[in-house]
Automatic annotation (TrEMBL):
Superkingdom of this protein's organism: Eukaryota
Keywords: Activator, Nucleus, Transcription, Transcription regulation
Function, in words: Component of the Mediator complex, a coactivator involved in the regulated transcription of nearly all RNA polymerase II-dependent genes. Mediator functions as a bridge to convey information from gene-specific regulatory proteins to the basal RNA polymerase II transcription machinery. Mediator is recruited to promoters by direct interactions with regulatory proteins and serves as a scaffold for the assembly of a functional preinitiation complex with RNA polymerase II and the general transcription factors.
A GO BP annotation: regulation of DNA-templated transcription
Name of protein: Mediator of RNA polymerase II transcription subunit 31
Record GO cellular component, one term: mediator complex
């Protein structure tokens, strides 16, 4: 059995760099989207990550997601808000001291926004959930 490799089989540096950038982008996007979950913020606090200078430097580094060319990939916009909150020592301390109560307030505010926000303000929001069409037989 012989192994034959031609020059065309070896990826060039630019394709390797593109692949590495894609992986980096996806991992950092996943981290940003995780910040939208208030329960994840509590987990970060209770495991000590929010006391870690390298981790907080990473949270600060993620500020580039605020730029429009990156923000368009954020499907949970409150992730951006939560990232900014995490940079505030007072908020990090509140996560430690208030724990689940604070997380519940964040989750409730997030839910209220989802329920009340709608693109077409002229239409009333669903009162008992979306109506479904029924067919008679």
């Amino acid at each position: 059995m012989s192994i034959s490799t031609s020059i065309s089989d070896i990826p060039d540096a630019s394709s390797l760099e593109r692949k590495a950038n894609k992986v980096k982008f996806e991992l950092e996007l996943e981290m940003m989207l995780s910040l939208a979950n208030p329960h994840y913020l509590l987990e970060l606090s209770s495991t000590g990550y929010l006391d870690s200078e390298p981790f907080m430097n990473f949270v600060e580094y993620l500020a580039y997601w605020e730029k429009p060319e990156f923000a368009r990939f954020i499907i949970y916009p409150n992730a951006l808000h939560h990232r900014r909150l995490l940079l505030k020592p007072l908020f990090r301390q509140a996560l430690k001291t208030q724990g689940h109560a604070l997380v519940q307030k964040l989750a409730d505010a997030q839910y209220e926004h989802w329920v009340s926000w709608r693109a077409d303000k002229s239409k009333p929001p669903f009162e008992d959930g979306p109506t479904t069409a029924t067919t008679s037989t």
